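Here is a protein:
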Amino acid sequence: MAPGDEQLRESRRKFTIGWAVGTVVSTVCFAWMITGGTWDFFQRNLFANFYDVQARALFHGHWNVPAGPLSIEGIREGAKTYMYYGPVPALLRMPVLLVTHRFDGRLTQCSMLVAFVVAMVFVGRLSWRIRALITTAPVSCTDTVLVACSMVAVGVGSQFLYLASDAVIYHEAELWGAALALGAFDFVLAFLIEPSRRTLALSCLFSTLAILTRGSVGAGPVVAIGVVGCAHGLVTLRRRLGARKATDVPAAEALATHGVPDTGPGGLWRWLGLPDIEPGAAWTFGLLAAAAVPIVLYVAINEVKFHTLVSLPLNKQVFTSLNLNRRITLADNGGSLFGLKFIPTGLLQYVRPDALRISRLFPFLAFPPKATVLGNVHYDTRDFSSSITDTMPVFVALGVLGLVGIFRRKSNRDRASVRTLRLPVVGAAVGTVGVFAIAFVANRYLADFLPLLVLAALAGFHLLNASWQTLRPSRRRVTAVGLGVLALFGLWVNVGLALVYQRELRPSAPISMREEFVSFQQRLDADLFGGRPPEVTRAAVLPRLGPPGALAIVGDCAALNQSDGNEWQAVERSESAGHFRLRVVFPANGPGGYWPVLVNGTLGAGDFLTVHPLGGGRVEFSYLFEGLHQGWINGTVVHVVAGRPYTLDAVFDSRVNQVIVHLGAEGVLSAVLVRGTRPISVGRNPLGGPVLARFPGRIDKLPVSTPTCSALLRRLDARRADQSGAAARAGSGTRSNTYW
């Protein structure tokens, strides 16, 4: 083996070690976050089974799916309901769903974990390719450590970790879209470095997968391939016509380095950093076909579903029929959520450096207020959102350095090949246009910036590393400290926002997770600062909605509620607020019908939480709100063992109109509409109607406590007592002075 080959092999080994260490650390952090710290990768969640039902529909040869699982997100075309998300994550589930129904609705955590690993693999491959474009120096041990740190910054200090805060289709689509787009750019870059049919085919494949997962970010690599094809076709056409110009690069002209044309005087071909491919119709058609295939498939699927080429008939979406603001937005924008007039608002929100709010409570930061709307435009939704400069500052800093190196006109010969990144970067920038031009602001949309930030930041990282020794020692120290601070800040922000969203703000946050997080926050605040807890009010009834994270104590700890910015969510409830913990033993041979668990209301207007036996050890929890022509609401079918005690956690909360039931740790029913009448009967039905008189098994009430609320109440009372004592002392002093 030649000495150069041995050196390259050793460099690749050290680089791989750094990549592997950083990836393992990042994957462990991602896995912890995606499971909410439980390490259970098969949890059920709201809005998490869309891809499962789509895969089942494709098994039967059609795109339409049952309307129920899609809920508000379904788009109705006549009697059929369709999902507007791309099918790729559904296709990836098929091998599992083909052999079992056991994991239906429970694959989202696993799917997102796989997507994360795929993304990290392609980030590593891109990093190695970009390094090779910039330097041929061997990888040192210091470089190995830097590579590991860079992978942790990508995996934990970026939008990737925030997406792990909620295992729902919205985050899954973002994650897979970014991962597959990174894969597409990896193969596009490989083709630009050393053109081959294999890399062109893989570029086409991953571009197709990306655009059929998330169209906006998937458009990036498609644009890059299309520009290469158009440029090659133009060169071929000019040569055939004999019109040789400055932009025409003859095949005889030697490549400077790494397959990139020399940086001599001009031409678009050289400026784009395109490879030296022999002109000919075969390559032109191959490149244009590689760009056309993803577009054709995207359009074909959209046409089959919605009878449109690229747009979505959002006027037919279930959510539109239920939400007045959505209808106003569509009417104001010609039936679409997209438009150039939204770009100023999106640009301001996603780039501004002040899109964070410092908090006294752990993790000591929070989302900023809603996005500021520029111009006379109507927005569909302004959700919680930060910016790329606040969540990924080290990527922005290195990305600016990388863009300067990629697009500067003059360059040293040993770095000329970094121009090869120009088209991938342009394509990745195109992939961000969708999030600017939509009437919707959300933090998850920052994931569409990841391909652009990764490409530019990796170029900046390796350019800086290659020129490190040429910098003065003082500049090296300042640069190292600055980048280190930015990287740590990104880690803090992404971990912090992910925790806040996962455990306080997301609609599906379990009450147990919310209570545990709030309790930890308040205990830590008491230890660090003492005094009155921040943003806590006490009232006889729920007050007006407070800012996100604000707490409200109802009565004498009847309930502790937290604002998520849209409505009050329960942190703790006592029995007086409708929270019951029950030990339930199911009978071996119970009668048919509905068995009472909790019964509330009056004769002819009752609220019934029941168990409905289905046979074979299967039961479902069902809820009936009599009146208003409401029918039975059925929950998840579960298997139970007769004679075995189960812990049942049930909520009848009329303050926020919630019925929530957990059997053990599994949510089995969620409904709305609860009457405020009392008392609530347990295990018996005094109202008659369609429910049995008594539960045929055994139900025992367990104690319900509110320790977090009680601790907050003690802090409030102690603070009030201190203020009263201070006022009394001040008053006493005043009287004494006056008297004396």
